[in-house]
Amino acid sequence: MKQIALINHGCAKNLVDSELMLGKLIQSGFKITLDENNADIVIINTCSFIHDAEKESVESIFKMINAGKKIIITGCLAQKYKEELKNLLPEVNGFIGISEINKIDEIVKQVYKSKQQVYKVNDDPEYNYPENIERQQITMGASTYVKIADGCDFNCGFCVIPQLRGHYRSRKIENIISEVKELTKKGVTEICLIAQDTTSYGKDIYSKPSLKELLIELNKIEDLSWIRILYTYPALLTDDLLETINKLEKVVKYIDVPLQHASKNMLELMNRPIMDYKKLIKRIRKIIPSSAIRSTFIVGYPGETEDDFNELYNFIEEMKLDRVGVFEYSKEKNTKGYKLKPQIPSKIKKQRKKILMELQQKISKSLNEKMIGKKIKCIVESINDKNEIIARTYKDAPEIDGQIYINTTTPVIPGDIINAKITGADVYDLKGII
């Protein structure tokens, strides 16, 4: 039987799409291999959010072309460049857009049979979660991502996602609950809720944002230990939602809210909510006293002055957020930022990122050192070759935040929730004992 491999690029939302495609292929009787060298067809699920992500995806494509593989390109790159990519890469056997991932088995069959390119890219993307497919997880462990919606109705000046993913589309609560129950049967104890914006969840099918209602139902699932919410939108973090997060035992007190900037001038240029973010942070901390707040910021967006940058620097210095990511602005076609002037030179963008990251490293180390001697809830991920437990605190999301290394003789298994006493601290990671 012919074998199929899949290479995944990009965000957690892309990872779920890849797992859905693998599930569909297995459902249709195809054999999957983890080694693309042994594969007859290689599916490359691409990312096109920023230039560097595109570059990574393109490198994979050419690597597989040079290896003489039959290739199907799926995801954002195929959606973004449509016919242009088809003409540029005649060696590629198939292209699938965002709307067609549930047809991956049909496309694979066509690629086997046909010598001509198979092209299924909808000009007007409409993402619909294929509820009849059981995901084939690429990364097995105690923690996994659950996509509750896709698409986006906002129009941020730096972002191409609405053009690639279409309008915001939520899944039904009962479908999400059913999936999470199945995941817990496989040993998953932490779920991370994802969407382009999780706080808009349900607005399209329940006539109002309904993340609160979803959390209440998820909190009832017996074998689930932690519920983590990623990608919230600042203007939709209402007191009611925050109070619900604080009240529900299984919802970790981790607020991931990408603010993008702190200067009102920049927020306006970015088409972002123009609000007092200092008040927002203080409100979160007041309602959820134990909250860990993570945010991301963009430097070098067109028009960013020294004053704008200094305002952002001062904001980060004063607010002392638990976790911060900083990105250099990436110029993307068909976005507001693409035509704005003045564009900021790459050298200045790199310099500004470096300054902010050095500031945050000092803040992060200081916050970590204050935890020494305290006990904190952690989820066990694995055990390393030094016989240390590798875990994450509730303040740390998988893959993007820090870890805690725990010395103990107490037997544990991945997924266990334990209390660890902090004995040491670095910029990002901690040491502890049980």
Structure description:
By secondary structure, this protein is an alpha/beta fold. It folds into three domains: 3-120, Rossmann fold; 143-369, pyruvate-formate lyase- activating enzyme (Alpha-Beta Horseshoe), CATH 3.80.30.20; 375-433, OB fold (Dihydrolipoamide Acetyltransferase, E2P). 34% of the residues lie in helices and 21% in strands. The protein is built from 13 helices and 19 strands. Strands 2-1-3-4-5-6 form a six-stranded parallel β-sheet, with helices on both faces. Strands 15-16-17-19-18 form a five-stranded mixed β-barrel. The protein starts with a strand and ends with a strand. The model has no long low-confidence stretch (mean pLDDT 94).
Tell me the distance between the termini: 50 Å
Radius of gyration: 22 Å
User: What CATH architecture of the largest domain would you give?
Assistant: Alpha-Beta Horseshoe
- CATH topology value of the largest domain: pyruvate-formate lyase- activating enzyme
The low-confidence runs, each spanning 5 or more residues with pLDDT under 50, are: none
Count of DSSP-assigned helices: 13
Q: Tell me the helix content.
A: 25-40%
How many structural units, i.e. domains? 3
Oligomer state equals: single chain
Number of strands: 19
Strand content: 15-25%
Spatial arrangement of strands, main beta sheet: 2-1-3-4-5-6
Q: What's the CATH class of the largest domain, please? A: Alpha Beta
Mean pLDDT: 94
| Major beta-sheet overview | 6 strands, parallel
What coarse outline follows from CA principal-axis ratios?
globular
Q: So, the CATH homologous superfamily of the largest domain?
A: tm_1862 like domain
What structural class results from the helix and strand content? alpha/beta
